[in-house]
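> example.struct
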């Protein structure tokens, strides 16, 4: 039988990862969890931690008595899961219908090339991370990206270098 979804969350400062004990606290809410709770557990840990750390995957595996390889296998199948912490500037690129029709695929390719990462990854300097998301409710601005809550709309690929540089400059000036 599925456990009822607990409402309680683990307190955490923004940007702070869950530590081992915090992950244990999440797992403790599902004492008799079976493998059908794997996805909800991955979602909850990712929601609180921002990503799935290796430690989190190992602990979830122990809790559900599943091999880590199986967990990675399942988690990588769903592109909602990420295995690196998000960057200082988290770029959400909309791939909803309106944005798709107006060229979001080209934006995605260009961002991946400029940042030298794939969607779901973080740049080596930790400055940017990239995530592909469904409609973010700004279809009138399509195609659109959202960086730390700031929307950039009606984009062309030529706008992207300038936008990235805005954030790099912010970083240099230390007013991020
Ligand atoms: S489809 Fe992109 S914001 Fe709605």
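> example.seq
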């Amino acid at each position: 039988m599925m456990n009822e979804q607990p409402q309680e969350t683990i307190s955490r400062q923004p940007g702070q990862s869950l530590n081992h004990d915090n992950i244990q606290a999440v797992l403790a809410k599902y004492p008799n969890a079976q493998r059908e709770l794997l996805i909800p557990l991955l979602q909850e840990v990712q929601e609180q931690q921002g990503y799935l750390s290796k430690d989190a995957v190992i602990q979830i595996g122990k809790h559900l008595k599943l091999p880590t390889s199986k967990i990675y296998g399942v988690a990588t199948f769903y592109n909602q899961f990420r295995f690196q912490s998000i960057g200082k500037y988290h770029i959400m690129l909309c791939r909803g219908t309106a944005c798709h029709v107006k060229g979001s695929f080209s934006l995605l390719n260009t961002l991946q090339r400029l940042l030298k990462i794939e969607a779901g990854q973080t740049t080596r300097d930790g400055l940017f991370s990239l995530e592909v998301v469904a409609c973010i409710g700004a279809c009138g601005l399509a195609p659109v990206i959202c960086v730390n809550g700031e929307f950039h709309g009606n984009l062309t690929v030529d706008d992207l270098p300038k936008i990235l540089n805005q954030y790099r400059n912010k970083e240099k000036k230390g007013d991020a």
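> remarks
The mean pLDDT is 87.
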